[in-house]
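Morning, I've got a small favour to ask if you have a moment. I've dropped the whole record in just underneath, so have a look.
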Amino acid sequence: MHGDYYESYLKKGLKPLDFASNINPFRPGDLHETLTEAIESAYYYPQNSYRSLVEVISGSTGWDSKNIVFGNGSIELIEFFFRTLRKGVAIVQPTFTEYERFAKIYGLRVHDVPWSVEKILEFIESRKPEGIVICNPNNPTGEFFRKAVMEEISETCERKNVKLMVDQAFIDFVKTHDVDAFQIRSLTKILGIPGLRFGYGCFPEEYAEKFHDTRIPWSVNGVAKFVAEKYLPRLGAFSRYVRARIKTERNHLVRNLKKLGFECRGKANFLLCEGEFQAEDVFRFLERKNILIRTCSDFKWLNNRHFRIAVKKREENRALLRELEVFVQENS
């Protein structure tokens, strides 16, 4: 887990350059000031109905308030989706490993489906799974299905009575769009504050009602609520700014990594890389330089040559590229 691993470095008095976590480096300029102001909220219980929060989410997204859900990180909403299933779930792979963990917790049979619209549609048509999960943009590959593709998948699921969950935790780093599904987003990734924990989404009304009937009281703390209510109305303009900055830096990384022999892919704020070297060797070399990356051999259908890096600011990206150049020279 990200937190456990990073904390082990902090206990040693180290603050590594963290390319392992897919967090926005271009935070809002007034974020620190906002967090300081939000501290006052910690002295009081948040309103458990969260009426003002629901109004802000609805006004910012256009979603009907009857469909809105929110939680202590998007992971709380993901977990709820798995609780709605009884038999099995199809997971589009390779992807976020927590989906399969939740499936196992609830005793669900898991069907792995490749990241291909043709394969996904074929599986839904022929196998009619109880539920299917798609991470879009996908973690760790960075692949992204555009709106027309997701609409086709959604319509097929509706026709076959298949529950569709779309994890859009990274949607703000690409072009946002809605889809008729259990739709889940994260605010704290685009703001660059994952430790605050705030996720929100749009569920079918029946399930949104069930979620609120069973959720833990005060699941969103006052500080997270304060921050969400301030930044959600500004999220569209801020995301467009971030996408432009990320695109510039992502292109810079891809160009220079290709010169070093690494093939990269990804349309969000991270890249999946593959070279001729063992990813674990790359990891250990960079770790000695106080730089962290994410090896990917624990993801289905990826191998020990794959690793993932976040897109960061130019100076940090240059630091990574300099050390990778040294690694390649020493190991070629």
Summary: The chain has two domains: 2-27+240-331, 31-236.
